[in-house]
Protein: ABC transporter ATP-binding protein
Amino acid sequence: MIQARSLTKRYGAKTAVDGVDFTVRPGVVTGFLGPNGAGKSTTMRMIMNLDRPSGGSVTVNGKPYAQHRAPVRQVGALLDAKAVHPGRTARNHLLAIAATHRIPPSRVDEVIELTGLESVARTRVGGFSLGMSQRLGLAVALLGDPATLILDEPVNGLDPDGVVWVRLLARQLAAEGRTVFLSSHLMSEMAQTADHVLILGRGRIVADAPMSEIVAGAGSASVQVRTPHIARLVPLLEADGATVSGAEPDLVSVTGLAAPRIAEIAAGAGVVVHELTPVTRSLEEAYMALTRDDVEYRAERIAVEANR
Ligand SMILES: Nc1ncnc2c1ncn2[C@@H]1O[C@H](COP(=O)(O)OP(=O)(O)OP(=O)(O)O)[C@@H](O)[C@H]1O
Structure:
């Protein structure tokens, strides 16, 4: 469990994290989202005592990180996968960390197996690909068998197999009752991995809710309706409270009415319908809507400028 209370970080005149309150619960994967510079890494660094809060506090499993007698057994973190001595082998890197924290060498072999590093365990990490470094970083995070895991962009640089592997690992760790707090800019991946979502924008909490609520709350879902009799159907739908929009002669987007009701109205009027597709919002659309005011450079603005 991670609990932040009025957590604040200022760098000179810049407020990177602005008095945030949140709780990251065990047993679920919590996704941490936000535009570049929103304060995600700073928040994670403060949880791990790598940055001092300018105000407020944050605890892991009930205590600030520094007050735990054996913090690596409480919380494991992947913050910067490349921060490893390049001359060491992966196994020696893990053995050195294990020795410092009185973790038996047998656990090193367990995490090597868990993270699929067996074939490169005796290779110097200086030659590792980003994907291998990420696996090694995850192995370090898991070394103390911690109840809480903090993973900053764990799928960064991974190939599609690696991305799926991280997703399954995160879900398995949460199913074991651990707290899993994970940041990523890959929305489709996050949608499949996280149960709960925390969104930061300019250092403040923009949303803190279950994934289903975030996606559902992004705006009303619509139904795509294709019929050769648009002109007959649209007034009937509008009379029943729908809002209808659409640019194609045989296709409209209907909000305010569910698909079964649209089907009943069409059937009642003898209108043939060729397609009736409920369209749910994606996490990406929800995220874009929620962070619209917190981003300096948006894709649509760039597109407008490119078309000038
Ligand atoms: N050591 C530092 N000194 C000064 N400013 C900093 C420092 N670290 C971060 N910042 C600033 O604080 C803000 C938050 O940065 P942070 O790296 O936490 O954002 P982020 O959400 O992790 O972004 P990204 O998605 O790009 O990783 C940014 O404006 C950044 O420039």
